[in-house]
Amino acid sequence: MALVATLVRTVLGAVEGWGDSRRGVRGGERVIGTANEAELEEQVTTASSAESGFRSLLRDKGFPSYFGGVAVSSLGNAMSEVAVVLVAMTLVDVELSGQAVAASTIAYMLPGLMVGILLSRYVRKFRPTTLIMADCLWRFGWFAIIGLLYSRDKLTLAIFVACLAAAALSKSAGRSGANATVPLLVPRDRLLHANTLSGIVVQGSTMVGPALAGLIASLWSPVGALVLDGATFLVFAVGAFAASRVIREKGGDEITGGAAETQRSGPWRLVGTAMPVFVTTGVFYLLYGCFVVALPLLAAGHAPEDGGAGLLGVMWSLFGAGAVVSGLLAPRLRFLVRPRSLAAMSGGWGLCMCAVAASPHPALAALSMFLGGLAYGPYGAVVRTLFQRDFSKGDNMEVSGYYGALTSAAAPLGIMAAGILSSFAGPGAIMGAAGAVLVAMGTVGTAVMWRMSGLAAPEPCER
Questions:
Q1: For the domain bounded by 265-463, which CATH number is listed?
Q2: Pfam families attached here (predicted)?
Q3: Tens digits of residue pLDDT in 279-337
Q4: Where along the chain do its domains lie?
Q5: Which of 9, 82, 205, 397 is the most buried (most CB within 10 A)?
Q6: Which residues of 305-330 are buried (b: 16+ CB within 10 A; e: fewer)?
Q7: How far apart are the C-alpha atoms of 112 and 125, rounded to whole Å?
Q8: What angle is formed at CA 430 by the lines to CA 426 and CA 434, rounded to 5 degrees?
């Protein structure tokens, strides 16, 4: 984990000094919570100091261990997207492979979604790092059981689906714990830096993980790839344990969710407080699902000789590159950390969707994907920073669970809708219509929230 943090710190040195003059531009606007002008001015001043930035963050005690765990487990999560499918296909005859893939995918998603909706309000009673460790150990255990049963030739599709469903039960709690751990390790003025780093490694993992899982499956076995995926969670558990020790050494209070706070913060109040973020994100991910379905079809039309596989890979790689670039620059643009910026980013991504749909040449479509990555890159980091900065620890954990359930449900629903619509319209029309809706929503949302001071809670939140 220390090696991961050291490598990242070296790479980030290239961007350390960029844009100091841009720090604090329009940074005094309040967002979501109750930060007053003096607090925000202090944050801007601190952000301008020589010690601020990515490298100083990775030199802090505690965060590098946590960050290394995030990096390794994110790679495992990305590997599971392919490994789960490949294992399911090996357990049934070819004619049933489609049903097996659907059943296993749903099993690894739906239980966590339901737990996030129904039980997120109860996670505030636990330490954030305890939730991370419990999630990691729980999922590793079930993946190890899958590997053991396979080695003894006792793994069937029904058992595999049941193990995946059991493993998925803890995902929401682990996500909430991870989001609540960062503010306990990182100063308030560097929350966006920390969330950006996490977002970049997650984005990179989605590009590397599936290919790595395919390679391991071909050299060893699909179940072997899944077991290695489970082993990555052990690394995150170790990182969370190290982070918990640092929090205690610093004198931080990791206990969340007292009785008074639980009575004051009901689920509807939290969702209502964060409603602009939830609405923007729900529509954003729903229409992103349409994009995921339409893009391979468009790529195949541009490059029919290989079914568009090569072009699709290039386009997603450029999207990832754009997301990394904008993610690295986001902490220098502190005006992004406000709800209306999310609406603007979704509108920008919608414009790029329209450009990809209308591009007459593959090169223009690929360039549009890079620009789309620039628009999308900081989105997740900004949302997490809003929650961490302006909700109490318990409320942050609860609202993060609801947010995770929303994102887990919206994209699959969009994929389902696009699959149905593809019978009546071409991929260009589907993508163009989805992009136009995002542009309209982004424009209206930005205008509506332009003069808002934020999604302020009724009373101040104490950390």
A1: 1.20.1250.20
A2: MFS_1
A3: 888 888 888 888 888 888 888 888 777 667 778 878 888 888 888 888 888 888 777 88
A4: 1-16+53-256, 265-463
A5: 397
A6: eeebeebbebbbebbbbbbbbbbbbb
A7: 19
A8: 170
